[in-house]
Amino acid sequence: MKPTSSTRRASRSLSWWAVLLTLTALIAVDVSRAPAGQAAIAPPLTVQPVVGGLAIPWDVAFTPDGTMLFDQRAGGISARRSNGVVTLMTTPADFADLAVVSESGLLGLAVDPAFNTNRFIYTCQSHKSGTAAITDVRVIRWQVNNTYSDVVKVGPILTGIPANAGWHNGCRLLFDGGGLLYVATGDAAVGTYPQDRSSLAGKVLRITRDGQAARGNPFLTSPDPDTQKIFTLGHRNPQGLALQPGTGRVWSVEHGTGRDDEINLLVAGGNYGWNPVPGYDENTPMTNPNVPGAIAAKYSTGDPTLALSGATFVTGSQWGAMNGALVVAALSSAGRGQRLLVFGVNGTTLSASGISARVGHHVRAAALGHQGSGREPVRHDEQRLQRLHPAGRTPSAPSGAMHSGCSRADSVGGRAVLGRSHDGGPRH
After folding, report:
1. Is position 427 within any domain?
2. 339 vs 56: CA distance, rounded Å
3. In the sheet that 120-129 helps form, which strands lie side by side, from edge to edge?
C-alpha cells in the first residue's frame, strides 16, 4: 500500500535518530546520556509514530545519507527521506512473480555497504512461476536511483532456496564488516533439510554480493556449489541476524516450536541441532543432543515461545545500561508484558539484562541507524512505523541527521531499527 499524503505530512516532522521497529509498525527509540560520573541506568522509552497506512511491513534498513528503506510483505519497497517525505519506489509489475502464501512474500531487506557507489539494495522474497503458487525463495538485487523515486530490479543473485506452501521461509539478510552477505533460511517445514548439506534450507548462508560462496566458508571443498554457500546448518526458522560491533561476531535469532526460541552465536561450520525426523516431528528439541557436535543456544525462551524475531546491537553512552546490548524484537509477549527484550553481552556470553519494554504487539524487526555519536532503536507493526526514544527527550534533529555507515550493523554512532507486525498472530 502506498503511504497517503496525510501520512507523508505527519511524518515530515519526525527525525531519524531512534530505533525503528518493523512488521506491522515501525518504532524508533532514543535514550538520553547519563550525567558525567553518574552510574548508567536504562532510560525509560517513549513510542512515537513515524509512518502509517502500511500493510505488514517486514524489514527496514538505512542508506548512508539517512534515508530509511522499508518493505511490505505483499510487495512494495518505500523510501522515507530525512525530511519526512515517503515515496513508494516500486510498482505492482515489479512483484508479478512474488509468491504471497502463508508466511511467504517480500521479507528481508539489506543495503549494500558500497551503496554510495553502486546504489544496490537486496531483498529476500518468495518466487512463483506459471501455475506454481510458490517455487522457491530468492535473493534479489535492486538499484535505487539518485532521488529515491524509483528502484529497478536488477535480478536474482541467489535462487533455489526451498519453499513449501510458504511455511518457514526465513528470511533475514545481513552484511558483515567485510561486505559479505548472510542469508538466514527457514527449513520449509521439511524434516530432512536442516541437516542436509545439499539443501539451502534450514541454514545461514554466507555469499558475496554477486551470490557466490564466500571465501573462508567451511565447506568450500565440496563439489556442490550450494554446499559451498553454507556457513551454519541445523536451523529451524531463523528470523533475525545481528553483527556485534567491534568483534565481527554474528548472532542469529530463531523461532522454536511451541517453545524454545533461540539466540545463537554463529560459528563457521556450526551445527545448531535442529533435526525433526522422521517426518517433521515438532516434539524434537531445538538443539537435538543426538546430533553430533550440536551447539547449544546462548539463550532460549523456554515455554512458552515469545516468537523472537529481528535483532540489533545498540551502542553509545546515551543508552545508559543498554550500551552494547543486544535488542531483540518479539512477535508474542505470551503474557510476559514485553515485546522488546534486552540482553547483556560479555564476550560470547549472553544474559538477560532484566530490561524490557512493552512497545506494542507483534514486533518484527530491529535495525540501527545513525545520529551523532549514539545509536537508537525503532520498531514497526502491521500498519505503521514507530520510533522509540527516551522519555522526556523530544525526538527532533536536523534533516539529514543520519550519516554514512548507517546501513552497516557494526557502524558506530547511530540508531537502531526494530519491527513488529500484526499479520494474524505470531508465526512459528
Report:
1. no
2. 17
3. 106-111, 120-129, 132-144, 151-162
- CA triple 212-148-241, angle to 5 deg: 45
Q: Whole-angstrom Cα distance, residue 104 to residue 127?
A: 9
What are the grid coordinates assigned to 418, written together? 526494530
Determine the pLDDT at residue 9.
34
Distances (CA, A) of 176 to 22, 30, 112, 250, 387: 21, 24, 10, 8, 25
130 falls within a domain: yes
Alpha carbons 104 and 118: distance in angstroms, whole number: 28
pLDDT tens digit sequence for 104-158: 999 999 999 999 999 999 999 999 998 889 999 999 999 999 999 999 999 999 9
Q: Kindly give the pairing relationship between strand 181-184 and strand 203-207.
A: antiparallel
User: How many residues can be counted in the chain?
Assistant: 428
Q: How many domains does the chain have?
A: 1
Least confident range from 83-92, 178-187, 210-219, 371-380: namely 371-380
The CATH number covering residue 396 comes to: 2.120.10.30
Q: How far apart are CA 183 and CA 349, in angstroms?
A: 24
Domain assignment of residue 425, yes or no: no
What range defines the domain where residue 257 resides? 5-420
Asked if 305 contacts 268 with a C-beta cutoff of 8 angstroms, the reply is no
Q: Are strands 385-390 and 57-62 parallel, antiparallel or unpaired?
A: unpaired
Contacts for 256 with CB less than 8 Å, ≥ 6 apart: 236, 262, 286, 300, 301, 305, 428
- Whether residue 377 contacts residue 417, with contact meaning beta carbons closer than 8 Å, is answered with yes
> Could you tell me if residue 428 is inside a domain?
no
- C-alpha 196/C-alpha 315 separation (Å) is 38
Q: How many C-beta atoms lie closer than 10 Å to residue 401's C-beta?
A: 17
